[in-house]
Amino acid sequence: MVLKKPEKKKKLFLGRMSKTWKKYSSQIIYQDPWVKLRLDQVVKPNGKIGPYAFIQPHGPGVMVVPITENNEVYLIRQFRYPTQLMSWEFPGGGSEGKNLLAAAKRELWEETGLKARKWKKLGALQSFTGLSDDILHIFLAKGLTQTNTNKKHEDGILEVKKFSLPKVKLMVKLGKITDSQTISALFLIQ
Questions:
Q1: In terms of domains, do 53 and 83 share one?
Q2: Is there a domain that residue 1 lies in?
Q3: Planar angle of CA 14, 19, 23, nearest 5 degrees
Q4: CATH code of the domain in which 86 resides
Q5: Mean pLDDT of the chain
Q6: 177 lies in which domain range?
Q7: Which of 9-18, 95-104, 166-175 tops mean pLDDT?
Q8: Is 81 found in the same domain as 46?
Q9: Which residues of 62-100 are buried (b: 16+ CB within 10 A; e: fewer)?
C-alpha cells in the first residue's frame, strides 16, 4: 500500500476534529442519486492503518416538527426497509444540497400536505456518527394549514396523524417511537 500525505482536516461546527485520525486516501465505491459510499484508508487512534467506510448523503438532511396551536404534533407512519419495521416519525428528508428551509417546507408538504406560516430552526444533529457524515437540521413549523395535496404515497407514507405531546412522549417510553432523529427533535422542542 502506497501512502499519500494526509489530507487537511475540515472543522465541524460541533468541535475540532481529532488529531489522532489521519486520512491517506479516499475513494467512492458506490454512488446513486441519494448517497455515496466512501472508503478511506486511515491511520486510526491506535496507530494502525486500515479502512474506514461511511455513507455520504447528497446534501444535509432536514426534519420538521409540525406543531399546532394546541401543542399537538403531526407524525408520519411508514415502513422502513433497512430495519423491516414500521416507524412513527416527524416528516423530513434530504435537502439535495439546496436551501435548508426550502427543503424543510418541501418535505413537510410532500409528506403531510401541510404548509406553515411560521418557521424556526431548532438546531442540528449528527444523525449516524459512526456510519455517516450527515448533519440533520431540525425546524419547527407553526401556523399550519392542510392543502389536501401531497406526495405521501410516492414516499411510502401510510398514515399522517396528529398527537398530543404527552402522548408522543408516552409512545417513546413504550417503544412505539424508536426513530432516534424524531426522539432527538422532540427533545429540542422541550
A1: no
A2: no
A3: 100
A4: 3.90.79.10
A5: 90
A6: 61-188
A7: 166-175
A8: no
A9: bbbbbbeeeebbbbbebeeeeeeeebbbbbbbbbeeeeb
CA angle, residues 44, 26, 58, in degrees to nearest 5 = 110
Residue 161 has phi, psi (to 5 degrees) of -140, 145
Give the separation between CA 23 and CA 34, rounded to whole angstroms. 24
The grid coordinates of residue 104 equal: 424543510
pLDDT over threshold 90, residue 3: no
* Cα 25 to Cα 4: distance, rounded to the nearest angstrom: 7
> At 123, which amino acid appears?
G
The string of pLDDT tens digits covering residues 103-117 is 999 999 999 999 999
Per-residue model confidence as pLDDT tens digits over 129-160: 889 999 999 999 999 999 988 887 787 899 99
**Reading across the β-sheet that carries 49-57, which strands appear in turn?**
22-31, 35-43, 49-57
Q: Give pTM, 2 decimals.
A: 0.85
Asked if pLDDT for residue 1 goes beyond 80, the answer is no
Are residues 29 and 118 both part of a single domain? no
3-state secondary structure of 97: coil
Instruction: Please give the grid coordinates belonging to residue 10.
Output: 475540515
Domain boundary, last residue among 39, 57, 75: 57
**Cell numbers placing 9:** 482536516
